[in-house]
Design goal:
Helices cover 0% and strands 57% of the residues. The protein is built from no helices and 11 strands.
């Protein structure tokens, strides 16, 4: 099983980006999918998560600005980021809890850099 993230880049404050993360390989089911981030000198933190039935939760600092969604048919999770701020600059990682038919474990994507700067 692999997670492939994409969509990061450089954006000005107030701008938008959309991250995608696709899971591939031996997948029987995916329960929770989510996005985490780590900024330089800061701890790894959760950004948003979404369950298989579409229930979402967000970190307080992202509420109203970020939207997480998923396409279960494509095993893909998205993060729409609007009104970006310089403090959103970080490496963003996707995560998914996947059952491969035998075992259930958490998988991580490779990380994608998001830089918010003028």
């Amino acid at each position: 099983v692999q997670l492939q993230a994409s969509g990061g880049g450089l954006v000005q404050p107030g701008g938008s980006l959309r991250l995608s993360c696709a899971a591939s390989g031996s997948i029987f089911s995916i329960s929770v999918m989510g996005w985490y981030r780590q900024a330089p000198g800061k701890q790894h933190e959760v950004v948003a998560r979404i369950t298989s039935d579409g229930t979402t939760n967000y970190a307080d600092s992202q509420k109203g600005r970020f939207t997480i969604s998923r396409d279960n048919a494509k095993n893909t999770v998205y993060l729409q980021m609007d009104s970006l701020k310089p403090e959103d600059t970080a490496v963003y990682y996707c995560n998914a809890v996947i059952n491969d038919g035998r075992w259930t474990r958490a998988y991580w994507g490779q990380g994608t850099q998001v830089t918010v700067s003028s």
